[in-house]
Fold each of these.
Amino acid sequence: MTIPEITTNYISRKELAKQLGERLRGRPYSEFTLIAWEKDGKGPPVTRIGRDVTYFWPSVERWLRAQERAPDRAA
């Protein structure tokens, strides 16, 4: 019996800050940005294992899609 690697889709806060920032704005976000977003309830969902924080990539993608907004109409 093969046990699947359950951590495959998880990403560290440091790596998420780097990848998300580079993809969205061309330079990494600070880890402190993700910490602030978490405290304000604005960021992607986190998984905490003790003091360690990790992000489930499919949840990050869902969070990112949820940020979409229709453009405001110019008056």
Amino acid sequence: MSNLYDALASAIYVSRQTLAGAAIDTDDKRIRASGLYEDWTEGKYQVDDIRNANGQTWECFQAHDNATYPDIKPDNPAWFTFWRPLHGTSPETARPFVPVQGAHDMYRVGEYMIYTDGKTYQCKQDTNFSPEDYAQAWEVYDG
């Protein structure tokens, strides 16, 4: 995620928002700025820290230190107790589907994601289920 193109596109986006007096204060805006966020590494994290990992942009919602809790890392079940994936509200900011762990990371009406079948879906009603598990909550985005 942190390649030069992503960083440049993110820098331009953030600059335009700043000039317009707008804050980077929503999941969608944070995803658009994701090229400027660091990739996750072991360390000490505070609430609201944002990092990229596994093709997704994540927000820390519970402070922790990997020196004390080494199991808190991407691809480990403990990760989801401390980090939530950001969800885009446009097809352009759709990120890979992440199974929902609780109310803090459920998909909301109007959010988009890319499912395991490679298709982009729009959430039609708040849900903690995938398109396979609860199809009526999702609609394939055809562009």
Amino acid sequence: MNGAKIAVTTENGQPVEEVTTNPQGTWEVQVDKPGKYQVTLDVSTLPQNAEVRGGNNTRTPTVYEGNCSTVLFALQPKGAAGEQQQEEGGTSGGSTFWAQAAQLTFEGLNLGLIIALAALGLSLIYGTTGLTNFAHGELVTLGALLAYGFNVGLGLHLIPAAVIAVLAAAVLGYLQDRLFWGKLRKRGTGIIAMMIISIGVALFMRYLFLIFFGGQTEAYAQYNAQPGIEIGPISAAPKNLVAMGIELVVLIIVGFALLRTRTGKAARAVADNPALAASSGINVDRVIRIIWTGGAAIAALAGIMLALSQNLKYTMGQEILLLIFAGVTLGGLGTAFGALVGSLVVGLFIQVSTLWVPPELKNVGALAVLIIVLLVRPQGILGRRERIG
């Protein structure tokens, strides 16, 4: 069919190219990098008597190094949907919908766990200091870029490169509080002033990344565009399954530390009442410094996982920061477990909502859910008086 419009974007919605089919009904788009892409057929450009079989006008192919990927949109006369089974596999349009819903739910869990890792550090810092840190997204980017430098720049395998990057980010988080934020607290700088300063820090770090890394999109040397494993209706790359396992383990360890260790109990005491915690013998500055160290390390790990899933660029932290804030606010400001629950809700809604809304609007829908929930429960899903745990 001639004249149908096809739009190709990256997995996170960045435009690649828009083309029109030729008289043979074929089209071609050149992409710079391997990875997952999103291909959307503009149904308004189809003939009046034609529609997409199954009703799904979006495909998410994975392009591998040195190979091309074929994307097909099967058409049928209007009104034929639901009257007969599809020719391939004998599946109906309804089963196709549920298969896509299962796939998007899996992808939503993957995204939600990444957001939860990043949101956890932000929530812990807010809980102990009251600071809404707008530079937290840059800590996410920092972890991804450090791992890229060790992996591609120095030639280390991604696994040791990632471990070194997380440790380096932890050291930088410690130094950041000891040499900067801790000094501001001792001088009595107000929370609003510190929040504005954090915006300046975010801008400084972002453009520092641009200078040293550049504006291009890059990928790690290993685990790039892996073939998917079929698990029922779900197709998942092995790296995503391993990444989700790592994310769950880290979240469980942090939760256990908050509930069972002396440092975790001290952090909860500081979050509840810093003055009372100090009078009972808790070293408040030491606790806050540990939280900054751990928060930076967790954010760096989230950045590595995000880059492994979507490739990396210097603005990746900025782009996910709004979703991090949404997860933290939805779960309850300052509550670590609330950040986890809120982030999972945000991640799931972002991906699953593309069943009904254009992919470009998926983040808007997640923020709409945030607004609706907060109208009913202003403190968030798990918001309560104790701020951490």
Amino acid sequence: MKIVIAPDSFKGSLSAVEAAISIEKGVKKAFPNIETVILPIADGGEGTMETLIVATGGSKKRVPVTGPLGKIVEAEYGILGNGETCVIEMASASGIAHVTSDKLNPRLATTYGTGELIKQALDDGYKSFILAIGGSATNDGGAGMLQALGVKLLDEEGKEISFGGAELARINSIDTSGFDKRIKDGKFLIASDVQNPLIGPDGASKVFGPQKGATIDDVKILDRCLAHFANEVEKVTGIHLHNRPGAGAAGGLGGAFQAFFPAETRRGIDIVIEYTKLQQALIGADLVITGEGQVDFQTASGKTPMGVAQAAKSHGVPTIILAGSIGPGIESLYQFGVVSVNSIINQPMMISEALERASELLEHCSEQVIRSFFYPA
């Protein structure tokens, strides 16, 4: 028998690699001689760079950049094993993890550090990029990133605006004459499963702003600011970002890539599946085990368990999902070849305890699930 183990991270407790190791331990407790293939997976959000580096035997480079609230943070980018492709997670430079919950403020947060990270990679000679744009703390439409790469966002007095989503309303003109010339010769693959437009009831501010600290009033202000920014961008590029699918990803960063970069956008999970060679690993498999911290109705929108299950189904291989917690709407996953969704929590406990014991709980759940699935093997 052959089992492919392909989980995402269990956020706050286990990386995808650690989760895969815990699952394998449980499987081996049940059936020591079973063949296992470990393939940690990500869906384009945090952990994507690490996953791709592990899968391809790549490396990382650390770079000090401007964090989302203007302070210097240590970010990093990855280089795939081919030595040619650079992987950048915008969260490494401009992510919500850099900001404590009491300091979250999308009116001030900037993507400038993401631009600095791209510029450093260009300086280092890279022309091919994979950009994972999940986990942002920002709602600035990618304005900060553009500024770091030489675009001037000017107010009525011809002065550059400051950082943050609320500053976008002050833009009077956009000067692209200083935009880094190397961008047009690069190849940029954007990893994102977000299809939200830039503005409106389904836009970046309304849907994602509150989780980044935006109040009800902030959401209204930020939406108007992004609309104004989109108007100015259209004057320069001719591209109408307002209701463009995916433009609202990462607080509008997706729109900046669409308007100013020679970029292609694909589901993050599909990119990761390609580079980790999951399809090849599924050949001859009897079962796939995947999972992540939270599984609910959103999982079917392109999260790791759904993407892995789709790939497995194409090979006629069933999938079992393990989760830290299970929310409503998991029924939609069964159409993708999922045979069961299982919580690793085996008794009443505080969230803090569950996070601390995640490895142990995942191992135990894996053992029990695999015994049930293959009984009487």
